Amino acid sequence: MTDDSTPLPATGCRDAPVLKQRGQHEVFCGLTGIIWLHRKMQDAFFLVVGSRTCAHLLQSAAGVMIFAEPRFGTAILEETDLAGLADAQAELEREVARLLERRKDIRQLFLVGSCPSEVIKLDLARAAEKLSLQYAPHVRVLNYSGSGIETTFTEGEDACLASMVPVLPETDERQLLVVGALPDVVEDQMLDLLSKMSIDNVKVLPARRADSTLAVGPNTSFILTQPFLGGTLAALGKRGARHIPAPFPFGEEGTTAWLRAVAMEFGVDITLFDTVTHAPRARAKKAISQASEKLDGKSVFFFPDSQLEIPLARFLTRECGMTAIEVGAPYIHKGVVGPDLDLLEEGPTLSEGQDVEMQLDRCRAAQPDLTVCGLGLANPLEAEGLATKWAIELVFTPVHFYEQAGDLAGLFSRPLNRRAKLRLEAAE
């Protein structure tokens, strides 16, 4: 396949200066990732080792009673555990035994730390290793940290997937590994496009079930679907797998560039690629055009939240006609988002990390047409007259690939439509 890649702007943002911020930040902790991961991995269970505060967080965020245990729960640490007065290891083993006796469907059990080990007085890595030996081969026990001290919002998924990579079987088979949790319907659309391009040996991490044929080795090429998976990228690299850099599949342009990168890696004929992508590309362009009428010519300001900010800024500026004022992200990993930075026209301030008061000052001074931020900042900014978009909604809503491109644009246009209607009503 020849390189018919998307033309780059005259000056992209890969080498643009980055404003480094290390002050107070406003973002959920990595425990939140459990809410979508437990739905994706159908025979996994997430046991959070933490306090009642952590239980309340998950209960509130998921909208369900934590003790109903859909596929997650909390092993609550009492004061005696935190003070080191009780044998936390023995207590955890009893909780796990009761859980696995009651839930015979569990094949993967994740011990998720809500605090660093020095706080909870328990080495979860050693606990997971011991329990995995005890319950093998029926149940694999792994651990990762979802602590708000060590992780932010979407890093919970990264930590979870990275914990799975070292225990994957070895394979020499030539294959494509697609990395990142997607809604099943979106994953099926993606697999169908790859199959039509004759790329058939495709595996997905995380797999829907633990008994899949998922393996990794030197003939594995992998591509990310989420821009917050830097730790998983590093873990796969250590296993000898090859990373396929690409813009992320948001919108028509991003999806086409993502698929083209895979097609080039696997030698897909350009005529076949164009045949497979022609119709869905046309549908995506039409849907984006209809949904983004209110976005053209408007400005957008991103607070750091999900790490989706850079690919989304690329989508909004290149496909929806918006102007980015500031694009803030918790971390900027150029090995991950470099291709999107290449496509993002130079101009916006790139900021990494957060000093929330200073960033609020910049946002108020800029008076953007749309501000993308976390829940904690949205209502105060709305009260000040700024239209906002909840960043968290972009993680929970299907937004990847062609068929969701119009919905993605609509997520940004709806706040502006709502603001216009409110102004009209007020004028009447």
Report on this model:
It is an enzyme of class 1 (oxidoreductase). 44% of the residues lie in helices and 16% in strands. By secondary structure, the protein is of the alpha/beta class. The protein folds into three domains: 18-25 and 291-427, Nitrogenase molybdenum iron protein domain (Rossmann fold); 30-151, Rossmann fold (3-Layer(aba) Sandwich); 175-281, Nitrogenase molybdenum iron protein domain (Rossmann fold, 3-Layer(aba) Sandwich). The strands form three sheets. Strands 1-12-11-10-13-14 form a six-stranded parallel β-sheet, with helices on both faces. β2, α2 and β3 form a beta-alpha-beta unit. The chain is globular and about 65 Å long. It starts with 17 loop residues before the first strand and ends with a helix. The relative contact order is 0.14.
